[in-house]
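pasting for ref
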Amino acid sequence: MTDAYYQLPTGNVLALNRHNAFPPLHQALTEPNGLIAIGGELTMTRLLDAYQQGIFPWFSEGEPILWWSPHPRMVLYPEELKVSRSLSKTIHKQLFEVRINTAFREVITACSATPRPQQSGTWISPAMIDAYCELHAAGYATSVESWQNGVLVGGCYGIQIQRMFYGESMFHHVSEASKVAFVHLVQYLIQQDVGLIDCQMRTPLLTQFGGREIERDLFIQQLQTLTQVQHDAP
């Protein structure tokens, strides 16, 4: 079967179906940055395959699924986490009860309803929510939640494959709630021996936390090392 392609002004993009694989990353477009395939499905198999290759889905409602691998790549090395003095004081005050994996669907649903600057809608559709909840049930997706008086007021979530974590989104209804959750997430991932957090694209908040951009080739090289199954020596 011959692969089909979408013809865009900046180049051709693979039309993904249930049978074909992602193309090599060097075929990703430079404009829009990192678009590598269009279409396909949000099955667990497809999502895990995508993440292990440094590809993630991001699209708006009404669009086909868009798959991305941008260059450069925003990452956070857990040991490089920076916590501001004011945020440290907030954490020390213990204003929030922080929990892990007790309300995954609630967190991703809240993220889907949170307005984003320069975005008219959300990429976290009901189909995305169901797909990531399936990943959570299988042990691949993690949420960290900030609670006050029994009410969920902030949180974040992402995907973990071996020693690699892929951050997805966060939300807050109370000031600092998502930041507190994120700091606890990084501390939790350090305990899990995670070596790299994929942050996808640069934002001011991630830069404040110590995130930085690296070359895509270096990102993929480190990703491949961190997602290899570690076997005990005989």
